[in-house]
Amino acid sequence: xxxxxxxxxxxxxxxxxxxxxxxxxxxxxxxxxxxxxxxxxxxxxxxxxxxxxxxxxxxxxxxxxxxxxxxxxxxxxxxxxxxxxxx
Length: 87
Hints:
This protein has 87 residues and is mainly α.
């Protein structure tokens, strides 16, 4: 190892930044987090992804766009198949 390293041009943070995403800290109510965690667990996805999708839908609605489709998970597929088989 060297006795001295030059960190004058170093940058703090992630080594590889995620394009189009920004890491933030946000305070949410406990019941909101519990709701999204439960829903995410039943659908097999991440709760932060679901919160982002909910915020994206709100943004799209305010712009007059249609909300994004919900992700195709096993639970969603089962529900759609049940609906189709009833008809």
